[in-house]
Amino acid sequence: MISREKLESYLVKLELTFQEAGKGTWVVREPEKGLASLFVMMADPLVVLRLTVMEVPKKGREQLFEELLHLNATDMVHGAYAVDGKNVVIVDTLEGDTLDVEELQASVEAISLAVVQHHAIHSKYPA
Fold first, then answer.
1. What is the dihedral of CA 64, 69, 70, 73, to 10 degrees?
2. Distance CA 9, CA 84 (A)
3. Using CA atoms, how far apart are residues 3 and 88, in angstroms rounded to an integer?
4. What is the pTM of this model?
5. How many CB atoms lie within 10 A of CB 80?
6. Is residue 61 within a helix (H) or strand (E), and if so which, with residue range?
7. Treating both helix axes as pointing N-terminal to C-terminal, what angle do 101-117 and 4-13 enclose, rounded to 10 degrees?
């Protein structure tokens, strides 16, 4: 498993703005990149990245879910859209034992890109 120190050093090396939110959990805040609150969590043996994208809308839920499933199949490089309670999230899981800084960077950038590229879809569904 990757150590807390090693994972935090990767966040520093990637020049991300972050703060520790708890033992083995960091919050990356890069709003200009679409990452208002990207959680990076150690969950042995995985490292989990999780970003809340929006609230599930009251109207058009089925259409949104269909669009998100389509994006999962065709457009998500890392991670996937999911629903957690009242929120639409993007979740990616990485193998902690073999994680290197380049893989973490690819995941963070893919999540950022998805949020920016899919903004037009998300904004069609107000909460």
1. 160
2. 29
3. 29
4. 0.94
5. 16
6. helix 61-74
7. 60
Task: Give the span between the Cα atoms of 10 and 26, in whole angstroms.
Answer: 12
User: Is 54 strand, coil or helix?
Assistant: strand
Lookup: tokens for 25: 């959990």
CB atoms within 10 A of CB 127: 10
pLDDT 10s per residue in the chain (127 long)? 899 999 999 999 999 999 999 999 999 999 999 999 999 999 999 999 999 999 999 999 999 999 999 999 999 999 999 999 999 999 999 999 999 999 999 999 999 999 999 999 999 998 7
In angstroms, how far is CA 76 from the centroid of its own chain? 11
